[in-house]
């Protein structure tokens, strides 16, 4: 089983991946780690701020890693914001049967009511070195965009609206 978790920054992708690791013992890959390894090693001239270009650069690598994991009957959780909304186009049916996709989106009301908590939990799994760019306005804008694109592309999304409680059951078909 391959589990893809995407969403805007600060939606809890890494925390959810960690929770699933602890529950199901599936390893996970943070796309941010791959991104920073490629940037720091000089394999790309892209920077952490080049989000659109990074998706195009990283996704072909990640897609082929997913195929390899499926072929080897391995479980893997991949989390990060660099998963395109049309992610499924690169897979034949026999691969898609082994992939679950979740896009985390916080509602406008949730963000407004819980912004202090969103900031407080920003480093719950990975320590953010600089989180000054995270403002209520940026979180509202990013989540609105992710919701719009998730609906446009008809992908599975988890709307976080009342309280932050995500329960994904990987054992259900």
Features:
173 residues, alpha/beta, 5-stranded parallel sheet, 6 helices, 5 strands
What does this structure look like?
The protein contains 6 helices and 5 strands, in the order βαβααβαβααβ. The protein has 173 residues and is α/β, with parallel strands linked by helices. Strands 2-3-1-4-5 form a 5-stranded parallel beta sheet, sandwiched between helices. Helix 5 packs across helix 6. The N and C termini lie close together (11 Å).
Give a brief description.
By secondary structure, this protein is of the alpha/beta class. The chain is built from 6 helices and 5 strands; from the N terminus they run βαβααβαβααβ. The longest helix has 21 residues, at 51-71.
SS-based class: alpha/beta
Q: Give the topology string: H per helix, E per strand.
A: EHEHHEHEHHE
Fraction of residues in β-strands = 5-15%
Could you give the order of strands across the largest sheet?
2-3-1-4-5
**Parts with pLDDT < 50 across at least 5 consecutive residues:** none
Question: End-to-end distance, in Å?
Answer: 11 Å
**Count of extended strands:** 5
The Rg value, from CA coordinates, equals 16 Å
Q: On the 0-100 scale, what is the average pLDDT?
A: 90
Helices, by number, come to: 6
Helix content: 40-55%
Shape: globular
The description of the largest β-sheet is: 5 strands, parallel
């Amino acid at each position: 089983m391959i589990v893809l978790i995407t969403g805007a920054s600060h939606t809890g992708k890494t925390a959810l991946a960690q929770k699933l690791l602890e529950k199901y013992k599936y390893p996970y890959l943070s796309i941010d780690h791959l991104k920073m390894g490629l940037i720091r090693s000089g394999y790309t001239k892209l920077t952490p701020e080049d989000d659109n270009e990074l998706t195009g650069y990283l996704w072909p690598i990640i897609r082929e890693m997913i195929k390899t994991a499926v072929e080897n009957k391995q479980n893997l959780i991949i989390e990060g914001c660099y998963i395109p909304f049309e992610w499924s186009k690169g897979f034949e049916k026999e691969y898609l049967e082994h992939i679950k996709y979740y896009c985390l989106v916080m509602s406008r009301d949730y963000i407004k009511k819980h912004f202090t908590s969103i900031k407080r939990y920003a480093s719950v799994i990975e320590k953010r070195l600089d989180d000054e760019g995270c403002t209520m306005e940026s979180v509202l804008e990013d989540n609105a965009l992710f919701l719009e694109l998730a609906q446009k592309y008809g992908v599975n999304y988890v709307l976080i609206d009342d309280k932050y409680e995500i329960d994904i059951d990987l054992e259900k078909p």
